[in-house]
Amino acid sequence: MNKKDPREVPLDSLASLDEYGDRKYIYPAEIKGFFKNWRNIIHPLFIAFFLILPWIKVNDQQWVLLNLPERKFNIFGLSFWAHDTPMIFFVIAGLLVGLSFVTAVWGRVWCGWACPQTVFIESVFRRIEILVEGNYLARMKLDKAPMDFKKFLKKSIKWSLFLLISLIITHSFLAYFVGTDRLLDMIQHSPKENWTNFLIICITTAIILFDFGWFREQFCLIMCPYGRFQSVLMDKSSLGVFYDKKRGEPRRTKENKDNPSEQGDCINCYKCVSVCPTGIDIRNGLQMECIACTACIDACDEIMEKVNKPKGLIRYASESTLEGNKSNHLRPRTILYAVILVILLSGLTISLLKKESVSFSIIRAVEEPYKVTDTMEGKKEVINHFKVHIQNQSPSQVSTEYHLKDEDSAYQLIAPMNPAITESGAKNWIHFFVKVDLDKFHSTTDRELQIEFKTKGDSVDIDTLKSITLLGPER
Ligand code: SF4
Ligand code: SF4
Questions:
Q1: Residue range(s) in the chain whose domain bears CATH number 2.60.40.10
Q2: Is the beta carbon of 299 within 6 A of some atom in ligand 2?
Q3: Over the stretch 415-467, which tens digit does the pLDDT of each residue have?
Q4: Ligand 2 center to 302 CA (angstroms)
Q5: C-beta 9 within 6 A of ligand 1
Q6: Among 8, 245, 249, 283, which is best to mutate for testing ligand 2, by the most ligand atoms less than 8 A from CB?
Q7: How far is the CA of 127 from the centre of ligand 1 (A)?
Q8: Most buried pick, 110, 286, 331, 351, via CB within 10 A?
Q9: Which of 241, 243, 299 is CA-nearest to residue 271?
Q10: Cβ atoms 15, 280 nearer than 8 A
């Protein structure tokens, strides 16, 4: 009976679990190569983007801010409020459909290149681990060794650095929700003054430390919903990391090792398995566990170079191209996603163009639309009562001055609050009255007046005209 290769990856269970269902820690081997070089450029850019983004301010406003308590959202300079639900819907639905489109065309490119889980583990946590504990073989040896001073020291340094990085990530993460000004203020004060945020920081740091420091690929395999959805979103033409079975098989074995004519290009070195962060063997076909990190492509290319065979035994491909067909990006699925995406983006653009930073509406006071009063001079006058609703959707406080546009001195606008101040994101109700002599009221046919609103703020300078119609007694 053939003895099983100990490096063989089981097909019926997760590579990161042993036969008793316990966690089998994965120590992926370090790798160099074309894709690794690109990841070394792209990952730091993403990390810098994530850490710097909340500190960017435009017009004294945080460029990206998700202020949940005040239900104010700044997304790349655009301000949304809770009542902007249609726009928030367009943004969220656009992101989801966009990700579906990207997955249908380029497979799990998000997982391998941009997901914070991959980016931080590969380019920060794993690097610290290598720096402190050595390469994957040294780490494996250290973990198996009994605890002594050297092991204790290495583990303490590693986990202290992990804690420091987790705290930096958590504070940056919190800055997206509370704002950088508030964050700096909180840091300078006792936790007693900000218990809720202090607890959020502690819990988030603990989660990041646990996930990026230890749980790692288990999150992708067990918890990430996107990994589960990929099989629905992808089809035979979607790009992914594939092993070219036609070219590679039959792989070299003990039985055929002396007969090159019976061998494909795969020399069965298991290098592709040893570098895989989820511990799978890509030669078993596309699997849910594959996060398309491309490490196995670089590993196999290195081997192919050494054995003088063309690179690309493992490569970016699709099931279709591996079968010898052309890759077709114009498929019903991709067309449908693209059409929905265009509809959502158009909806968002129209909503943004129609969005007013400060809006006004005037309604008549229903309690007493008008009344007739006696003046000191013994005359009678008609007074109409109106209410103005001001909604300030601009990022700063605004001041609104208003007056009658018509120069006719017979009409008089009386406003207890003029100018009216409206805070950013707030709604304001102001009352005003329009007074006219009863004689004048009866002698005129045109009782429509124009009110001019002049609104000023840090980023606002708007003139708005609104019409009102006066009511009064029949002659
Ligand atoms: S199979 Fe290859 S691409 Fe997929 S996760 Fe493993 S190393 Fe990365
Ligand atoms: S690295 Fe390449 S040659 Fe080696 S086992 Fe994997 S596919 Fe085969």
A1: 358-469
A2: yes
A3: 988 899 998 878 889 999 999 999 888 887 778 889 999 999 887 889 988 99
A4: 10
A5: no
A6: 283
A7: 18
A8: 286
A9: 299
A10: yes
* Residue pLDDT, tens place only, 316-356: 999 999 998 887 888 899 999 999 999 999 999 998 888 88
**What is the pTM assigned to this prediction?**
0.80
Bridge partners (DSSP) of residue 453 are 402, 464
Q: Which residues are registered as beta bridge partners of 380? A: 374
Kindly state the average pLDDT of the residues 119-129. Answer: 97
Fold of the domain built from segment(s) 358-469: Immunoglobulin-like (2.60.40)
Distance CA 71, CA 82 (A): 5
> Distance from the CA of 286 to the center of ligand 1, in angstroms?
9
CA–centroid distance, residue 7 to ligand 1 (Å): 16
Q: How far is the CA of 244 from the centre of ligand 1 (A)?
A: 14
**Which pLDDT score, from 0 to 100, does residue 4 have?**
67
Determine the average pLDDT of the residues in 79-105: 87
The verdict on the CB of residue 215 being under 6 Å from ligand 2 is: no
Tokens read off for 92: 């969220």
- Residue 44's pLDDT band, with cuts at 50, 70 and 90, is very high
Ligand 2 near 270 CB (within 6 A)? yes
| Beta strands at 314-317 and 358-364: parallel, antiparallel or unpaired | unpaired
